[in-house]
Write a structure and sequence with these properties.
By secondary structure, the chain is of the alpha/beta class. 38% of the residues lie in helices and 15% in strands. It contains ten helices and seven strands.
């Protein structure tokens, strides 16, 4: 059943795809920090330079009615394409998602489903289609049916996650897609380097930064949201940008890994952000091929 526009205004939106590094668990901590920096009845602008799956974005849109202008950005062109399609072409997207979901459900066994998945992965990687709606259908299908719901590309930029073997995964969540579409109408969507977002800040602006995390141990590196790495030099460049945000009088919140989880002598972030407030919070790793590596760890929330 299609939700009417008036009904959708009361429906909370949530991330429309699973994304490594998603912040669902930290949302209460982040919202608490936002509350401490922005009064509930005070109008403000919200900028998220690394939007990813949008867990914090949608929590802000669901919970802070005074938010006036919202800017999101990400370096990943496929992800930003999906945001734009949901914002501008959600009805066509839903029709096509329902069709691919039905085609997948009608396959007789896992072997046929795996072949279907691999064919769609090849099609997605071929970039032979110029239709953003079709490409978004493939992206969401692969995200809902791949192993662990993981988005990962190799050095050539090709999606390479294997089949997930799930029984009837929900590929088309119509109600949520409509809710996301409703909320995105007030959102400006950018694709590119995070520094461009400063051009959109004015008046009372809050930045939330969720960059690719610094690996907490050598074997835990996951830098394949894009084919480029977000290494220590990039972490330092981000901090220099955050200094500009702070000096301009804007509020910010940053989340990142706590490298002290496995090396108590590692002061990388403590030294880098020594002039700001650093809070350590517990989180649970969700996306990991090793189930026993999904335990609690500490993460950082940093703000001015």
């Amino acid at each position: 059943m299609t939700t009417s526009l008036s009904e959708r205004k009361t429906v909370s939106a949530k991330p429309f795809l699973k994304w490594a590094g998603g912040k669902t668990q930290l949302v209460p901590n982040i919202l608490s920090l936002i509350n401490s920096q922005i009064s509930q009845d005070c109008q403000f602008n919200y900028i998220e330079p690394f939007v990813g799956g949008g867990a914090v974005l949608f929590s802000v849109l669901n919970n802070f009615s005074p938010v006036q202008k919202v800017i999101i950005n990400d370096i990943n062109p496929d992800l930003i394409m999906a945001y734009n399609v949901i914002k501008n072409n959600v009805k066509e997207l839903i029709v096509k998602l329902k069709k691919i979901q039905q085609d997948f459900y009608e396959l007789k066994n896992l072997e046929e489903q795996q072949k279907f998945f691999l064919d769609k992965r090849i099609e997605f990687n071929s970039r032979s289609c110029d239709d953003d709606i079709e490409k978004t259908v493939l992206l969401l299908f692969l995200n809902k049916t791949c192993f662990n719901g993981l988005y990962r590309v190799n050095s050539k930029g090709l999606f390479n996650v294997p089949f997930g073997k799930y029984v009837k995964p929900l590929i088309c969540n119509e109600e949520n897609l409509l809710a996301v579409n409703h909320h995105l109408q007030k959102v400006t969507i950018l694709q590119g380097d995070f520094v461009q977002t400063l051009n959109y800040a004015n008046n009372k602006t809050l930045f939330y930064f969720d960059p690719p995390y610094k690996p907490i141990k050598k074997t835990s590196a996951f830098t394949s949201y894009t084919k480029e790495d977000f290494n220590d030099e990039e972490q330092i460049r981000l901090k220099q940008f955050i200094d500009r945000v702070d000096q301009a009088g804007y509020k910010f919140i940053l989340s990142n890994s706590d490298v002290k989880n496995f090396d108590s002598d590692n002061n990388f972030f403590d030294d880098l952000y020594k002039d700001y407030n650093i809070q350590r919070v517990k989180a649970r790793r969700n996306i990991n091929s090793q189930g026993n590596n999904r335990g609690e760890i500490w993460e950082l929330l940093i703000n001015n």
